[in-house]
Amino acid sequence: MSDRSAIEWTDATWNPVRGCTKISPGCAHCYAETFAERFRGVPGHPFERGFEPRLVPAKLAEPLRWRMPRRVFVNSMSDLFHEDVPDDYIAAVVRVMLHASWHTFQVLTKRSDRLAALLAGRLQLAAAQPHIWWGVSVENRKHGLPRVECLRGTPVAVRFLSIEPLLEDLREINLSGIDWVIVGGESGHGARPMRVEWARSIRDQCRSAGVAFFFKQWGGVRKKETGRSLDGRTYDEIPTRVRGPLPDTEERLQALREAEGSVW
Question: Omega into 165 within 30° of 0, i.e. cis?
């Protein structure tokens, strides 16, 4: 179920959008696409249409039904800022995050330019909320580091980097203004290897900059066998969560009705 997740750095996943398209080398062996395409053509399955991008408005209200506070990874099976997702729909997703402030939302994208533009404009209120964390994916220097710079220039409360799959030595990274870094190797069929010195370099830079460091996995074809220990220990650092109170029943029900009543 989506209110639970096996992803090490989150508690739950929420997918009001499904599907995506490839835009950089980090997408080459996308785990979400591999999973979704297994079910293409299966009548009634959530991924009956495979990994084609589409809105799922029936999922909009989901976090409002979860009373227990969770870290919620937004769109683990898509990208909220994909070009096929209308601005108005992104705003509807963000409204739910604003209402459900007892959760911590983790929004991750490769489309950092659109994220920055919207957070500087109509989503400006969400940018300032400490319970909504905004992150970008980083796989190499050419594609990933410009996303980091874009995120650093966006006035948000909490910024994070998902450096997975790490495909090369990133060398020096400007971690000013970054609160959290996740590092992981690629997993599954055709996984490209991650070298230990690449991961060490990022860990050491996080140490110097005072940034929380989370080592997710080595990856590979059999990721359970390679594990998630770096130099003999695990790294599970996560920024301190700032949660709002659970609203009274009527306020929560009103937000739930609003989300469920959205027409798309």
Answer: yes
